[in-house]
Structure to design on (431 residues):
């Protein structure tokens, strides 16, 4: 290569750090997860909706809360060059769903069960199970006040884990963080507790002591764990209504036979929650073990300018679920039934028609493209994962037949099948 040529060779670009491609080898597992989730959500009457990926920044600041990690340091925020408006790539889906529900008066006539899925964006330090673009399955019940719906969503997740074969990989934690008045009182209790320990707190926690002492409980800093462990618990300070709600949730979960741990330290990282909060966790993914989290957010509609509307919901991290499925050795198969190889122009034309006929009959068929020797075509047939190679060469064209070669099962011999009997032959084989 000449120097001039070298200088003009473009460097290959890489994806943005923490943002992943989902390649065809992995995609079947993703599609399996999406299909299974969709089926389970529909079973409970949740209807699909899709919102924009970009929303006005104040939507997230007002809903998630100014003193949260997400709003303080993780949002992808930019100025719209034309309007000058501040916009943000959604870091989660709840705020957008509530915005859409208010904008379109979705809950005007009756409560709504809805769900969505898609990409979310948070500028976190990437590691296994934590990415900057990640995907959530998000389920929300809008306009429901009782603990029966909190329980319904938890039970729905238990059903999803079962359908995915993950039921023995995850456990359930629940807590109540009370109503706003309970929490105001609890904040004061916590501030009074942590203040004498001020020098032992890390910088984040020192700051949170005045902004939101509840978030200190969320700290993962090992040096602070013993102080945190001895802090007073919210659950002991619940007001009567929040207490009754939590007892109700427990009764529903007990009647469904679900096993759970009451984790009095569970506070969640977003400010809109009240009363019930829950997480499903696994110990199989290292530090990023929360596969789904959610809770009740009865005040969010009002704080975004809507009518008072009690609501609850959760989101599950799809990357973490795919990792768990892989850990469990699960594979989703996307191989075609047959790979059609052909030699000669006449065979190519016949193969084209045969492939369409087989697809009409509902079979997945890959038609070889790009020419090449029979040997190289057979290699591609094998690599496709297909169960059969269907071979059309001169003899077959002459006889109106196709040679079927088994690519997976051993002990099966190659055989020739008349073309007009092939669909019946496949039907008999694939039963
Ligand atoms: P969240 O706890 O922030 O809640 O996220 C829910 C789930 O999304 C997590 O448990 C985790 O599985 C996944 N997740 C979060 N961040 C990342 C990341 N950086 N990389 C990979 N996975 C991640 C919410 O987002 C709330 N909107 C849930 C909710 C819905 N609450 C009520 N309704």
């Amino acid at each position: 290569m000449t120097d001039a040529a070298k200088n003009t060779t473009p460097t290959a670009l890489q994806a943005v750090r923490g943002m992943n491609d989902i390649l065809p080898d992995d995609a079947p597992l993703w599609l399996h997860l999406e299909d299974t989730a969709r089926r389970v959500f529909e079973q409970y009457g949740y209807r699909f909706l899709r919102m924009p990926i970009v929303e006005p920044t104040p939507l997230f600041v007002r809903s998630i809360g100014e003193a949260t990690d997400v709003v303080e340091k993780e949002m992808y925020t930019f100025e719209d060059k034309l309007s000058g408006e501040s916009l943000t790539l959604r870091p989660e889906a709840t705020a957008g769903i509530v915005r859409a529900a208010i904008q379109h008066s979705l809950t005007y006539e009756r409560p709504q069960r809805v769900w969505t899925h898609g990409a979310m964006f948070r500028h976190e330090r990437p590691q296994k199970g934590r990415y900057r673009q990640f995907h959530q399955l998000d389920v929300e019940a809008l306009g429901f006040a009782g603990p029966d719906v909190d329980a319904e969503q938890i039970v729905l997740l238990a059903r999803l884990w079962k359908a995915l074969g993950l039921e023995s990989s995850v456990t359930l934690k629940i807590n109540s963080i009370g109503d706003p008045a309970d929490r105001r009182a609890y904040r004061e209790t916590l501030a009074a507790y942590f203040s004498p320990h001020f020098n032992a707190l890390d910088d984040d926690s020192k700051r949170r002591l005045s902004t939101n002492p509840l978030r200190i409980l969320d700290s993962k800093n090992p040096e602070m764990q013993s102080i945190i462990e001895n802090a007073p618990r919210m659950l002991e300070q619940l007001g009567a209504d929040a207490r009754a709600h939590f007892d109700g949730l427990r009764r529903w979960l007990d009647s469904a036979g679900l096993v759970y741990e009451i984790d009095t330290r569970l506070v969640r990282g977003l400010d809109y929650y009240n009363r019930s909060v829950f997480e499903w966790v696994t110990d199989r993914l290292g530090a990023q073990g929360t596969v789904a989290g959610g809770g009740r957010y009865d005040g969010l509609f009002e704080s975004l300018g809507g009518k008072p509307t009690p609501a609850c919901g959760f989101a599950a991290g799809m990357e973490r679920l795919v990792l768990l499925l892989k850990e469990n050795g699960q594979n989703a198969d996307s191989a075609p039934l047959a790979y059609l190889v052909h030699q000669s122009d006449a065979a190519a034309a016949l193969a084209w028609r045969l492939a369409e006929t087989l697809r009409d009959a509902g079979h997945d068929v890959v038609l070889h493209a790009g020419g090449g020797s029979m040997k190289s075509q057979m290699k591609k047939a094998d690599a496709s994962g297909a169960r059969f190679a269907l071979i059309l060469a001169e003899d077959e064209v002459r006889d109106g037949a196709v040679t079927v070669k088994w690519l997976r099962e051993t002990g099966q011999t190659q055989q020739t099948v008349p073309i007009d009997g092939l669909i019946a032959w496949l039907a008999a084989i694939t039963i």
